[in-house]
Amino acid sequence: MSKVNLPADALEIELDPIFKNQVARLYRITIYLRWIAIGLLWLTVGAYSLWELRYPISLIQEDFTWAAVRYGLAFQPIPAFGLCLCIGMMAGTLVWQSRNQIWGLPTAEYQRLIEHVGKIRKQGSSHPLWKWVVRSIDN
User: Fold this and answer.
1) What is the pTM of this model?
2) FRET pair for 6, CA 20 to 30 Å: which of 18, 37, 43, 77?
């Protein structure tokens, strides 16, 4: 996670090393914030959903049948939706992060990060991400 795997088209873009380092920092911050959001989602919605599904889960533990799974998910739609939301967000982030590590960032996403770092630098120290993206490199 220390390096950003750049897309092949990004090799043509000439950026100074400090700016590239700031783009990499913004990418790492994006990853950290996604995982923090997923953790909070599991602590709130996921915990509630698992608590509400405790009876169907106990049925499944005693004797696993697809009827018990169907009962648990179909007849308690709100907890089932919450559990699916948590699993979906986590799976989506895992796929996104794996894709970026294996094949590199897509050019459009890399351009978005470049533009975002430019906006952060333009706004200056009043931007909330300034001290994590720009200021810590200056020191």
Assistant:
1) 0.81
2) 37
d(Cα 23, Cα 133) in Å, to the nearest integer? 8
The answer to whether 107 touches 10, Cβ cutoff 8 Å, is yes
Tens-digit pLDDT profile for residues 64-119:
888 888 888 899 999 999 999 999 999 999 999 999 999 999 999 999 999 999 99
Q: Name the token pair of 117.
A: 């770092």
CA distance 129 to 118: 12
Gap between the Cα atoms of 107 and 90, Å rounded:
24
Q: What is the crossing angle of helices 107-123 and 17-41, to 10°? A: 100
28: nearest Cα among 104, 134, 133: 133
Say how far apart CA 67 and CA 73 lie, in whole Å. Answer: 10
Put residue 54 in one of left, alpha, beta given phi > 0 → left and psi -120 to 50 → alpha. Answer: alpha
Gap between the Cα atoms of 133 and 116, Å rounded: 10
Phi, psi angle pair for 7, to nearest 5°: -70, 160
User: Could you give the count of Cα atoms lying within 13 Å of 119 in the half-sphere of its Cβ?
Assistant: 10
